[in-house]
Amino acid sequence: MDSDLFKIVPGNTTGFARIQKQWSENSAHLRFEQTYTWYETLLKYIKTKEQTAVIAHHYDKQEENALILPLLFERRWFSTRILPIGNYYTSFFEVIELGENDTQKLQDRYCSLFSNILSSEKWSQLIIEPLDREGQSYCLIIEACRRLKIPYATYYRFDNYTLSLNGKSFSDYYNELPSRLRNTIKRKLKKVQSKFERYEIEIIKKPEDVEKAIDEFEQIYNESWKKQEGIPEFIRDFSLRAAENGWLRLSIMRLNGNPCAAQIWFVKDGIASIFKLAHSEEYRDYSVGTLLFYEKIKELVTVDKISMIDFLIGGDSYKKDWAFKKKERWGVMLFNTKTLFGLLLYIRHDIISGVVASSFLRKLFRSVSRR
């Protein structure tokens, strides 16, 4: 691990050398957004000169396990705010658990982790998001706040659609899709095959093929309905790193040799995540995006033998056709009321929350009174 990239809290470099080794050796059970590769690549593009990348950790030397939380300490003249290392590409963030963590002892370790953060310096606010609201980490963070008497607030971030296959074949899954979607696939596939002599889909996995494939992806993206990509260099860079780790599944559809739709998927430990997609408006009447989804999921289920599909950020209408479960991502905001600015932020939040609640109760009372 690049020692210049992260500051350590608490600053025990000997202990962290072991954590770094664990992070590398225990990455098999981590989502791609929890790996060092993800954080290292993302930091190159999002960290500002006012920010310091920090790994907050709790390391249990006796039991060889650790908790780590990658953060950004953002210093301003009046306070320090702590943010998760992430941006609009981040669909999932939580405390990273390394080694065999005893469930009964895990809560105490979370408390130790946040106690280390609390005593690290005079920060005013700590934001942790986006968390799986149904996940263990979300509950443990809130309980740690209660035990340590850290004022906190929770808030909704976005929807997250997933599909658990539970051993289903592609045929089983396909038959469960809405009849409207299945009819669209049949009609458009027939239309494409009758109109074009060549209907091809290429799957890019190897690092040496990434550069050319991303060029084609960007060409399709620029011809699509989508707004300008936020950090295209990050997409290119992480796709290469993902290919080096065997995670990349970049799919390009071509009609008569012309690229018309593309999707960037990452497959890790049985979970296929759809990261980016686009199709050319010129081929919109052929539903090329839908056809590529159909072909890609068939390949993921039959070849990669995936167990789950994660549609990552947002509740776009097309996701509701392909996925059967909706979850929510939430955030937790901690206030350090031992600092003046942290106390002011907490009072401000309390007042705003009270006003909103009072407004809701007034409306409810009026509604009931009219009956």
Features:
single chain, 371 residues, alpha+beta, Aminopeptidase, 2 domains
Helical segment count: 11
Tally of distinct domains: 2
Sketch the topology as an H/E string, one letter per element.
Answer: EHHEEEEHEHEHHEHHEEEHEHEH
Average pLDDT taken over every residue? 88
Percent range for β-strand residues: 25-35%
Q: What structural class do helix, strand and pairing data support? A: alpha+beta
CATH topology of the largest domain: Aminopeptidase
Taking pLDDT < 50 over at least 5 consecutive residues as the criterion, the unreliable ranges are none
CATH class of the largest domain: Alpha Beta
- Measured between the Cα atoms of the first and last residue, the distance is 66 Å
User: What is the CATH architecture descriptor of the largest domain?
Assistant: 3-Layer(aba) Sandwich
Give me the oligomer status: single chain
Principal-axes geometry comes out as elongated
Residues in helices, as a percent range: 40-55%
Number of strands: 13
Radius of gyration in whole Å, from Cα?
23 Å
| Biggest sheet features | 13 strands, mixed
